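Dear all,

This email documents one entry for the complex benchmark we are building for the journal club exercise. For each entry we list the sequence lines for every component of the assembly. Then comes the predicted three-dimensional structure of the complex as a token string, followed by one or two observations. Please use this as the template for your own entries, and keep the labels exactly as they appear.
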Amino acid sequence: MIKFQASVKAVGPLVSEFLDHQILVLFGMNAPPELAEFAVLHDGAAPAAPLRRGDRLWIDGSEYQILAVGEVANQNLKTIGHLVLKFNGEGEAEMPGDVCVEARPISPIELGTEIRIEEPGDA
Amino acid sequence: MTEESIYRAVRVTAGPHGWGGPLTILPVPGRDLIYSVTGSGIHPVARRIAELTGGVPFDGFQSKRDFEEIAVAIIDCGGTARIGIYPMKGVMTIDVHPTQPSGPLFRFIKEELFVSGVSEDDIELVEMDESGAVIEAVSAGDEDETLRDKAGHLLAAAREMKDEAVKKSGFLKRIFGGQE
């Protein structure tokens, strides 16, 4: 099941600084400009179901397993399209807003990049 | 008589497991937005600060305003992104979650600009003198004998606080006073 699907509409000038820390920050389109500075703005709707450990994140053709979901991460995504993705391989969220995924190189983020979160098939 | 008299100051202290502060928030004309950058419209903490100070509650996700107009930003940041951006811009910041300095912008998060774990119970009215120094805490409606008994003690404490605050007044002026 696809839980979340979005297309990148804007890439802030400080995004690369966050990527250097293996962090990708998403906000919905109505984020104020100061947040858009370090974030990717996207057109995704509220997730169809809460994200959970074991879900898969896709950035275009690259797949990352979701290892941990912080306690306020789902609320953030639902209300303001906000997601903090940490590519750190951690099994516990250090911060309540974190979604931790596998520690692998982050696929390039550009206008039009597709971001998707799926629950693996229940077959 | 001055326009400033329409605003009152509040002191905001860290809640349980919170960090930083206390912050003294005093809106001034042109810098009076109580800027809620939270997921649910105007957060109750922002609403409370606006009620007490006379500042204007504002939802950062609804429309855009300049940083110079923000008296204080209220965030519900999970620890990485919003936590640093407002302190980086020199805007006093209240996180309703009990976060510690963290994230790529952590170096900007100082106790003079940031306080966390804040609920409505951590906000109190204070009196300030003309230099911006806090001189007295104001009890919300509890004006009984006990309070009067405390007055002498408070006054003594206030002198000490004022000395401390005068040191900070340059900083406060920079935050509240605009283009100096």
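Observations: Chain A touches chain B at residues 17-18, 20-21, 23, 25, 30-35, 37-39, 70, 72-73, 75-76, 78-80, 82, 84, 86, 94-98 (CB under 8 Å). Helices of chain A lie at 15-20, 33-36, 73-80.
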